[in-house]
């Protein structure tokens, strides 16, 4: 009788432990899927941001190249009043050595 009672308590404890493990595994699975979805969302946002930054970088490089082009520098210099000198206006300076 004592053994039957002990076996019954042990069986109830094992059943309770099994149910707790099942519930815990369900919560863990839901949490894991939620975490994965959250990471996928963040990754998507980061990829979108990377794409925007790469596009901006290409635009900035193109702007830099156009600003540093010889034609643009020549145009800006002419607007400021600079022009290529005549050969007669060129002064050569000798370096002391």
Computed structural class: mainly alpha
Specify Rg, calculated over alpha carbons. Answer: 39 Å
Distance between the termini: 118 Å
Unreliable stretches (pLDDT < 50, length at least 5) are none
Residue share in helix: over 70%
Oligomer: single chain
Strand content: under 5%
The number of distinct helices, counting runs of at least 4 residues, comes to: 2
Tags for this model:
97 residues; mainly alpha; 2 helices
Secondary structure layout plus pairing:
Elements: H1 2-67, H2 70-79
Molecular structure report:
It contains two helices and no strands. By secondary structure, it is an all-alpha fold. It has one domain (2-72). It is rod-shaped, with a radius of gyration of 39 Å.
Summarize this, please?
The chain has 97 residues and is mainly α. Helix content is 78%, strand content 0%.
């Amino acid at each position: 009788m004592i053994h039957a009672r002990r076996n019954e308590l042990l069986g109830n404890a094992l059943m309770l432990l099994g149910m707790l493990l099942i519930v815990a595994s369900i919560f863990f699975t839901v949490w894991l899927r939620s975490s994965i979805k959250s990471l996928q969302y963040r990754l998507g946002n980061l990829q979108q941001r990377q794409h925007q930054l790469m596009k901006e970088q290409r635009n900035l490089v193109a702007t830099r190249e156009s600003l540093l082009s010889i034609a643009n520098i020549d145009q800006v210099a002419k607007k400021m009043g600079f022009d290529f000198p005549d050969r007669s206006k060129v002064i050569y300076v000798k370096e002391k050595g």
